[in-house]
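Entry 14. Structure prediction run on the chain below.
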Amino acid sequence: MDLSVLRAETEALAIDVITQADSQVGDIFVLGCSSSEVMGGVIGQNSSQEVGVVIIKVLVDVLQKRGIYLAVQGCEHLNRALVVERELALEKGLEIVSVLPTLDAGGACSVAAFERFEDPVEVEFIVANVGIDVGDTAIGMHIKHVAIPIRPKQRLLGKAHVTALGSRPKLIGGSRSKYA
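Output returned:
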């Protein structure tokens, strides 16, 4: 895998999705990613730490410049717990759980995030504004209601299928209500 191509694709994908989602300072961006799928393998079978490091480095750089928090979802072996900065967990009152991600339980991106973040912790659940799902890892449980599909221009990252979700406020009221 050409890592320079992966870097460029990851950056373009992230910028496209946060632009379409109209992401703002303070928003939370969740990443679900199978490095195995990015490499052309089967989810959970061939984790690549090298791929995880590239993807996390790019996302941290893109999102930090915009004041957007990154939450990195682990695999089902960790109940899809997420790596976040302790600052975010404390600010949002998130429950911190005791676990360290590994390649076999959490995945390459979770491990890379844990190594890259300044003060990483794992949380069990989050309500994010936007996210990308690389390799069909199922991030929907971590996107706030009402989740809306985003159609990224780029539908593959490496060889992995990519989907994305944004969110909007709930429309409440009845027939007399008006919405912006």
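Helices lie at 3-20, 35-38, 49-65, 86-92, 108-116.
Filed with the rest of this week's runs.
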